[in-house]
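FIELD: query
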Amino acid sequence: MDLIESVFRGLNESAGINLTILYDPFDRSRFWAGFLMTVHLAATSVVASVVLGVLGAAAQKSPFAPLRWLTDGYVAFFRNTPPLVQMYFFFFGLGSITPTVPDDLGFPTPLIGNVAWAIVALALFAGAFNVEIFRSGIEAVPRGTAEAAIALGLTRLQSYRLVVLPLAFRICLPALNNNLVNLVKTTTLAYAIGVPEMLYVSNQIWSDALNVPEMMTTLLILYIGLVTALVWAMHRWERALRLPGFGER
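FIELD: result
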């Protein structure tokens, strides 16, 4: 580590390439914390949005009409409003009326912090698109498949969980992949409500060290890396779930 620090410190002095995150311990620690926060936001909101998509698609097929209307309203609201506005609504709107608890010094602290509100907003935003993605996958499964499962003695719920959903999941994986990639990139909006993710801490670093080009390039490379890792994992998952002859033209 001392060698790396000396190399990049010398690079700054000789060529003006000022990557403080590689030779300054303070900048390195806060940037690393920001990177981990971005990974936390992305991973948590991805999982939550997929769960919402599955539950929402099932609700759209429910015989209970009010549940279908509620799901359709949720999808319409979150698909037709900007994600930044949604994040502001949750943090400044709902956050202002949520209960507070005293901190160690006795000052009131919101029960739900900015990180939690960011995850809620991101998950609900992507979940609305996932509902439509899973719905299209379910509708692509031949009706006779579900009817055959019921004829074999499965209940409607068992047929959906054990037969229809696994087949629909295989069909909609490419579209789901695109939406989850977009979700990872949308995590940068958490910057607007003070969540210390990569863009937020990078702004702090370049404000102190005046190294905007270096930090922006670093951000670009790291986000490309995160998205590439997600796409690779999704493609591996898609190949592992592929059924010979199913979904092929």
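FIELD: remark
Residues 44-195+206-241 form a domain with the MetI-like fold fold (CATH 1.10.3720.10).
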